[in-house]
Amino acid sequence: MANPFSLLAPALVPSWNFFDVIAASPRVEYALADTRDAALDAWTEFRPRPQRLSPVAILGRLVWNARWNESLYLVSCAERLVEEPTAHGEDEIFRRIAADLAARSDAPRWLSFRLLFVDPTGEREVLYQAAPRLRADIDIR
Predict the structure, then answer these.
(1) Which of 17, 20, 128, 132 lies in the 20 to 30 Å Cα band around 107?
(2) pLDDT, averaged across the chain
(3) How far apart are CA 118 and CA 52, in angstroms?
């Protein structure tokens, strides 16, 4: 039998080699337009991270933070969409953006998003841009 300590050690001492690589961090940005062919130049970051949080907010987020969990899911979708584009990944991102914009009845009808990657040095690169979709056609269930 193998040394029991060697089997137990990985559970007791965390591995700081958690990530395979440190890669660029994806940001989801969206743009709204009145027509499908309109120029998309006013991009807005979707669910930007707060600049500061109060201690009470930090403690509250330790217990319940469903919105942040959903934002982490979007980061996963964005990373997979760049590696291997699928309709499902694109639909998931469109669905969440459209759901957040559903209350804005005055917003333009066409929605598009792009994936902007920011590397640790601050370099920004657009690696994916979705074709515009009519907001009314996006299932936000």
Answers:
(1) 128
(2) 84
(3) 20
Whether residue 20 is contained in a domain is answered as: no
| CA atoms of 9 and 127, how far apart (whole Å) | 40
What are the residues facing 131 on neighbouring strands?
A: none
Radius of gyration over alpha carbons of the chain, in Å? 19
Q: Given the structure tokens 């370099």, which residue do they identify?
A: 123
Triad 9, 10, 12: Cα angle to 5°: 65
- CB contact at 8 A, 76 and 9: no
pLDDT tens across 48-106, in order?
Answer: 888 888 888 888 877 788 888 888 889 889 989 988 999 999 999 999 999 988 887 77
